[in-house]
Amino acid sequence: MAEKTGVIHGRFQCLHLKHMEYLMAAKNQCKRLIIGISNPDAGFIRVNLHDKNRSKPENNPFTYFERYEMIRLAMLEFGVPREQFEIVPFPINTPELIFQYAPRDAVYYMSICDDWGEDKYRTLTGLGVQVEVLWNRPTEEKGTTATEVRHLIIDGKRWDHLVPKSVYRYITEHHLDERILQIAKEAGKTK
Questions:
Q1: How far apart are CA 114 and CA 81, in angstroms?
Q2: What residues have CB less than 8 Å from 53, skipping those under 6 apart?
Q3: Cα dihedral value 9, 42, 45, 104, nearest 10
Q4: Residue 71 · residue 43 · CB < 8 Å
Q5: pTM to 2 decimals?
Q6: Which of the 8 DSSP states describes residue 137?
Q7: Which part of the chain is the Cytidyltransferase-like domain (predicted)?
Q8: Quick one: which of 75, 2, 1 has its CA closest to 37?
Q9: Is there a contact between 146 and 11 (Cβ–Cβ < 8 Å)?
Q10: What fold is seen in the domain 5-186?
Q11: d(Cα 66, Cα 73) in Å, to the nearest integer?
Q12: Per-residue b/e over 76-114, b at no fewer than 16 CB within 10 Å?
């Protein structure tokens, strides 16, 4: 394992096993991984030209702290020592603020699966940081998405197999699944 520091980011609304594949691929490349949570609060959310649904409240049901806790628990569940990772806000929509939270001299890991991924790649390389693309896949090969997990919760279908065990426990013990249902109901997305 290299001695370098890596940075990776995502919305993690909610953290699922494909996210863990992404996080662990980055962690395997560096000694210390800084995990950035994008859209850390409503003030950072912007309408995305490539995916206008990303900014809707029903697609952002979890707070920064809840996502922080899910990531922390899952990384520990996956055997990553706590001293080898940090979790920080990552304002990708206001890139001039990124270096308030993450080091400029780290390696920035990411995946590209759609136009939004391409935009983020251009944003990060435009900041002059070293970017390493872990994989570049077509959208149809992306795999599980947080949208899929949230829809399964809304539809009352099984979703525990798509998330780390610690994340499932956290969501159900804190009744966050009920919040997803309530937000969907308010948005007219339930039957």
A1: 32
A2: 59, 147
A3: -40
A4: no
A5: 0.90
A6: -
A7: 8-103
A8: 75
A9: yes
A10: Rossmann fold (3.40.50)
A11: 11
A12: eeeebeeeebbbbbbbbbeeeebeebbeeebbbbbbbbe
Structure-token match 């998330």, residue found: 163
Q: Tens of pLDDT along 33-88?
A: 999 999 887 765 555 555 555 556 678 999 999 999 999 999 999 999 999 999 99
Q: Which amino acid is at 137?
A: R
- Name the token pair of 8: 């990776």
d(CA 164, CA 151): 17
CA distances from 41 to 16, 90, 93, 98, 187 (A): 20, 10, 11, 14, 19
Characterize the bridge pairing of strands 130-136 and 107-112: parallel
Closest C-alpha to 152, from 14, 11, 24: 14
